Amino acid sequence: MPIKTLQEMRILVVDDDAFILKTLTRILQKAGVTKLICSDVATEALKHLSSRLKPVDVLISDLNMPELDGIELIRYIGELPNKISLILISGEDKRILETAESIAKERQIDVLGSLQKPILAPELLEMLQSPELVKTVESRELGANDLANELRLALQNHEIEPFYQPQVCSDTLAVVGIEALARWRHPRQGLIPPNIFIPLAEQLNLINELTEIIYQQAFADLASLHQQGWQVTLSVNFSAQCLAWLDVPERVQKALKAHEILPKYVIIEVTESLLSRDLATSLDILTRFRLKGLGLSIDDFGTGFSTMEQLRRIPFNELKVDRSFVHGATQNHVSYAILESSLNLAKKLAIKTVAEGVEDQADFDLVKALGCHIIQGYMFAKPMPMDDLCGWLTMYNSKAE
Ligand code: C2E
Ligand code: CA
Ligand code: CA
Fold first, then answer.
1. Residue range(s) in the chain whose domain bears CATH number 3.40.50.2300
2. Labelling 54: which of 232, 303, 352, 389 has CA 20 to 30 A away?
C-alpha cells in the first residue's frame, strides 16, 4: 500500500484575503500538494467539508472572515461525521489564536497547530508532515472508498428502507400523517442515519435510485395503512438532485396508481436551501407534481437564503419550520422570532404549516399558540419501522379515547 504523502492529501484553504490564498497556494504546490482547494468564501468551503466522497484531510482556515468566522466554522466541523484536521491562521493576537485552538480541541477536532501571519513555509509544512496526520489520512481514504462501495451494494441488497415518524393535528391531536425517513440497516454496523449516507448517495449519483426505493416501499406501506383504516398522508423527502430528474413526476404517479393511492395523500418535501441550482427545471418538475394532485412542502424552512423568492415562484402548499427553530424556542428569542415570522408568513399565504422537532410540552404549547397546524417530534414519537408503526397507532389511539 502506498504511503500517503503530502501529494495525496486533500487540503482546503479558506481565507478572504486573496494575497494569503496566493501565498499558501505557492507554498503548498511547491511542496507537491496536488489536491488543493482554495476558497475565499467560508460558506462555499462548507460544501467541500461535508463531502464524503472527496473528504478534506486538512483545513487551513483564517479566523476572521466576513460571512462566517473561523469559530463558526470550527463549530460546523465539530458536527461533521468526517474528521478533519485543522490549521488556524490569523493576523490577530496570538492569544485569540490560542483560544480558538482550545475551542477546536474542546470540540474533538484534531488541531495540527496555528500560524500567525505572515505565514512561513517551513512552519506550515512541518505541521502537515506529522506522522499522526499521515496515518489518519490513510485510514480516512480507505474508509471513504469502502463506504461508497458498500452503499452501492446496500441499494442492491435492500438494506435501505423507510422509517416513519407520525405527524399529529395540533387541534385534535389525531394522527394525520407520516414522514418517510431513510435508514440503512447495515449488516455489521447496525442502523446508519441518513445524514451519513444521503450526501454520499448524492455525490455518487445514486440518489434517484435511493429515492425510488424509498417512495416505492413507502407507497406500499401507505396502501396497507389505508386498508387498515388509517387515512394518513405520507411525506417523502426529495433531494435537489432529484429535481433534475425530468420524468420523476410521471414515475411517482405510476407508482401511486399501482398502489391505488390518491395523489392528495402524498406530499413531496424539498429542502429550502437546495432549491437554487437549476430553477427552471426544478420549477418544471415541482409544478407537474402539483398538477398531478400531490402536495409540495418546503422543508427546513428558515435555514436557506432566498426564502421569499422561492415561496413566490414555487407552488408550495405546506411549510415545515426547521426543528432548530422549534425545540427550545421558548428559551431563545432568535428561534422564537424566526418561528413566529415563518408561521405568520405561511398564514398570510394560506399555506399549511408543520413544526418538526417538538420535543416537550413547552415546544408544543408554543407552536400551537402560534397557530401551527401539524406537529411532528419526539414528544409524540421518533421515526420507527413499519412493523412498529401499526402497533404505535393502535396504542396512541386507544390512549386518546
Ligand atoms: P428532515 O427531512 O428535516 O427530517 C427531520 C429529521 O428530524 C429526522 O432526522 C427526524 O428523525 C428528526 N426529528 C424529528 N423530530 C425530532 C425531535 O423532536 N427532536 C430531534 N432532535 N430530532 C427530530 P433523520 O431521520 O435523521 O433525517 C435527517 C435528514 O436526512 C432529514 O431531515 C432529511 O433531510 C434527510 N433524509 C432522510 N430520509 C431521506 C430520503 O429518503 N431522501 C432524502 N433526499 N433525504 C432524506
Ligand atoms: Ca423532511
Ligand atoms: Ca429539518
1. 3-129
2. 303
Pinpoint the residues of the chain covered by CATH 3.20.20.450. Answer: 149-400
Does the pLDDT of residue 20 top 50, yes or no?
yes
The three grid cell numbers given for residue 188, joined into one nine-digit string:
455489521
* Site to substitute for ligand 1 among 191, 235, 297, 323, most atoms within 8 A of C-beta: 323
3-state SS, residue 318: strand
Rounded distance, CA 358 to CA 362, Å?
A: 9
Ramachandran quadrant class, 335 (left: phi over 0; alpha: psi -120 to 50; beta: rest): alpha
Q: How far is the CA of 309 from the centre of ligand 1 (A)?
A: 25
Does the domain at residues 3-129 carry the CATH identifier 1.10.3720.10? no
Q: Which helix (H) or strand (E) holds 196?
A: helix 194-203
For 63-95, write each residue's pLDDT tens digit. Answer: 887 777 778 888 888 888 777 899 998 887 788
DSSP 370: T
Fold of 149-400: TIM Barrel (3.20.20)
Give the ranges where 260-385 is alpha helix by DSSP (H): 279-291, 307-313, 333-348, 361-369
0.85 surpassed by pTM: no
CA 72 to centroid of ligand 3, rounded, Å: 20
Residue type, 209: E
In 243-301, where does DSSP find H-type helix?
248-258, 279-291
Q: Find the DSSP H helices in 50-193.
A: 70-79, 94-106, 121-128, 131-156
Residues with Cβ within 8 Å of 341's Cβ and at least 6 positions away in sequence, in order, are: none
Residues β-bridged to residue 295? 267
